[in-house]
UniProtKB/TrEMBL annotation:
Residues 127-162 form the Adenylate kinase active site lid domain. GO terms for molecular function: AMP kinase activity; ATP binding; zinc ion binding. Catalyzes the reversible transfer of the terminal phosphate group between ATP and AMP. Plays an important role in cellular energy homeostasis and in adenine nucleotide metabolism. Keywords: ATP-binding, Cytoplasm, Kinase, Metal-binding, Nucleotide biosynthesis, Nucleotide-binding, Transferase, Zinc. It holds the Pfam family ADK_lid. Residues 126-163 are annotated as: LID. It is an enzyme of class 2 (transferase). GO terms for biological process: AMP salvage. This is Adenylate kinase. Monomer. HAMAP family: Adenylate_kinase_Adk. It comes from Clostridium polyendosporum. InterPro entries: Adenyl_kin_sub, Adenylat/UMP-CMP_kin, Adenylat_kinase_CS, Adenylate_kinase_lid-dom, P-loop_NTPase. ATP binds at G10, A11, G12, K13, G14, T15, R127, S136, Y137, K199. The gene is adk.
């Protein structure tokens, strides 16, 4: 199964991706997570990406597209994958389509987690993440079981540097201008499915499973 997750920052893409990846045994590929890993390891890619991420801007398309194409050609993607945070511009979406067509493949669906803007700020500013395994928590909606420690791997959870109110507003603006057009891009190709992301985390997951079915 090949899936693209769409939705504004804070919609719950990362949260749902973990569960989808487990249920359907496909790798969860988050471009944001890959960039953050490179930043923490101080690689050339990380140094480049940081210039944009800290201000809520998108990393340039060429950098991002090449990185994703490399990732999709790895062995674990043979039976499908779940893309979280990519594509994020029409140019990226076209590049993904071209990549798939060159391999005679196609996406199963682009799944939009729909959440109105007035929900987003509270979700983002209350988010805490695990720097080791990428798990995402929320101080109110999804707290860790052990105070401040990741449920999955036990690491100390942290707040993302771009989850301040000011940067969140910039990211939302970037989303509206550059990423929202992808909803029509996939709608026009009859590939869009939509779930209501304002429901509780487990209810959103149930709706997603209904759409994805038993998987292939
Ligand atoms: P990225 O890491 O992709 O960030 P994002 O799109 O801004 O999305 P988030 O991770 O903030 O939100 P999410 O939808 O994953 O929500 P989550 O599940 O954590 O990108 C970061 C940066 O990297 C970009 O700004 C850009 O610079 C760069 N980048 C990445 N990809 C790129 C690309 N393709 N091209 C160019 N640049 C790129 O949930 C949010 C919070 O809400 C959590 O606290 C969670 O616990 C809580 N929550 C989740 N679901 C629910 C629910 N149903 N009810 C209540 N609370 C919930
Ligand atoms: Mg995320
Ligand atoms: Zn962890």
């Amino acid at each position: 199964m090949k899936i693209v997750l769409l939705g504004p920052p804070g919609a719950g893409k990362g949260t749902q991706a973990k569960s989808i990846s487990n249920r359907y045994s496909i790798p969860h590929i988050s471009t944001g997570d890959i960039f953050r890993k490179n930043i923490s390891e101080n690689t050339p890619l990380g140094i480049e990406a940081r210039k944009y991420m800290d201000n809520g801007q998108l990393v340039p398309d060429e950098v991002t597209i090449n990185m994703v194409k490399d990732r999709l050609q790895q062995e674990d993607c043979k039976n499908g994958y779940l893309l979280d945070g990519f594509p994020r511009t029409v140019h990226q979406a076209e590049a993904l389509q071209a990549f798939l067509e060159s391999r005679d493949e196609q996406l199963d669906t682009a799944l939009l987690i729909e959440v109105p803007m007035n929900f987003i700020l509270e979700r983002m500013t209350g988010r805490r993440v695990c720097p080791s395994c990428g798990a995402s928590y929320h101080i109110k909606f999804n707290p860790t079981k052990n105070d401040g420690k990741c449920d999955v791997c036990g690491s100390d959870i942290i707040q993302r540097k771009d989850d301040t109110e000011e940067t969140v507003k910039e990211r939302l603006d970037v989303y509206e201008r550059q990423t929202q057009p992808l909803i029509d891009f996939y709608k026009e190709r009859n590939m869009l499915s939509v779930v209501d992301g304002t429901k509780a985390i487990n209810e959103v997951f149930e709706s997603i499973c209904k759409i994805l079915g038993s998987g292939r």
